[in-house]
Amino acid sequence: MRKVKLGIIGIGNMGSSHLQNIWQGQNPEIVVTAVADTNPERIEWAKKAIVEHREKYPESDIPDMAYFADGSDLIKSGACEAILIAVPHYDHPRYAVEGLDNGLHVMCEKPAGVFTLEVRKMIEAADRHPELKFGMMFNQRTNCVYRKMKEIIESGELGEIRRTSWIITNWYRPQSYYDSGAWRATWSGEGGGVLLNQAPHNLDLWQWICGMPCKVDAKLHFGKWHDIEVEDDVTCYVEYPNGATGTFITTTGDAPGANRFEIVCDGGTLICEGNKLIMKKLEMFETEFTKTWTGLFGAPKCEEIVVETDGRNRQHTEVREKFAAAILRDEKLVADGREGINGLTISNAMHLSAWTGKTVELPFDEVLYKDLLMERVKTSRRKVETGKSAVADLSDTYNA
């Protein structure tokens, strides 16, 4: 059986998880042939880990890997035909462009990048190479509940969307989490806080199911609950082209927090909470009822339904599986890499709204966003290395 030869760039928490899951047989059509990390300790970990895995599972057929101190060297080595990018956010676009321009298929961890102006370079590279597969690791799109929500909304069964609301506050993190790495929760290291680290999946699902807003008005608190310089508390109001409105609330400061996603439509409401999907379906669409009802009070009759799903929720395994299938048999990806800019656009608009104190209309001024971000990078209290260049020099890099 032919297998996709995969190189993993970045073998920290996520990269090592992908590596070990593939070793454990979760993706039989993928073989990891190379890994890269700028941290020598992670390379040593990988060398020891492969020996330990072979000793523990002597029946497994894991080939030797090539090891590289930089992702660019891996990309140019010829050791693989596809790469999985799992490095700090700022370097996602750079490695994606390098990979595509060197004839490699690319899977990128979320978020697509830190700001849309740079992510557009990824899209341009993908468009230059239509023969290559370019995917985003939006594993939450495999969740049966979110897939069902999208199916119902797109079917038109409940009519047009009128209001969306997502309160996603169960991302609690203690101060020790932020203290665990100098790059965490800094403008120079991550480029943002909860919107760039924890919430990208939610922002992607929000737009994937409900569509993109046209106006964004957000209030962000920076270091409200933690000793950090980026946002850890967000309240956002949006408007959609059809006149619908929406809210998005997230934080890493609430314990225990909540996760409730609600979509109000003309014909009823979808509520996702605790991995359970409820449909409150109106007997008559509200727009029809309000025109025909003659009583002083009253409302359309409503039936509450527990929505059945297929129960499938394979997360990262399915994303990797479909990435391999796309390469081998031209099958469909879970998420095309070009779609990574959508959730990031909303995130960037939230930051821009908070920084300027104004409602932001989409599309927004992407150059202004980059300039305001780089001002914060220059004064970021923690400077860390990202790829080949110090993050302290990012403003010069992106002004070039």
Biggest sheet: strands, sense, closure? Answer: 9 strands, mixed
Radius of gyration: 22 Å
N- to C-terminal separation?
46 Å
User: Which shape, going by the Cα principal axes?
Assistant: globular
The helix-strand sequence is EHEHEHEHEHEHEHHEEEEEEHEHHEHEEH
Task: Note the beta-strand portion.
Answer: 15-25%
Mean pLDDT comes to 94
Question: How would you describe this protein?
Answer:
By secondary structure, the protein is α/β, with parallel strands linked by helices. The protein is 36% helix and 22% strand. It contains 13 helices and 17 strands. It has helices at residues 13-23, 40-56, 71-77, 92-101, 116-128, 144-155, 175-179, 200-210, 286-292, 315-329, 340-356, 366-378, 394-399; strands at 4-9, 30-36, 66-68, 82-85, 105-108, 134-136, 161-168, 215-222, 231-239, 245-251, 259-265, 268-273, 276-282, 302-306, 360-361, 385-386, 389-390. Strands 14-13-12-11-7-10-9-8-15 form a 9-stranded mixed sheet. Strands 3-2-1-4-5-6 form a 6-stranded parallel sheet, sandwiched between helices. The longest helix has 17 residues, at 40-56. The N and C termini lie far apart (46 Å).
Summarize the structure.
This protein is α/β, with parallel strands linked by helices.
List the helices and strands and how they pair.
Blueprint: E1 4-9, H1 13-23, E2 30-36, H2 40-56, E3 66-68, H3 71-77, E4 82-85, H4 92-101, E5 105-108, H5 116-128, E6 134-136, H6 144-155, E7 161-168, H7 175-179, H8 200-210, E8 215-222, E9 231-239, E10 245-251, E11 259-265, E12 268-273, E13 276-282, H9 286-292, E14 302-306, H10 315-329, H11 340-356, E15 360-361, H12 366-378, E16 385-386, E17 389-390, H13 394-399
Parallel strand pairs: 1-2, 1-4, 2-3, 4-5, 5-6, 7-10
Antiparallel strand pairs: 7-11, 8-9, 8-15, 9-10, 11-12, 12-13, 13-14, 16-17
Helix pairs in contact: 4-5, 6-8, 8-11
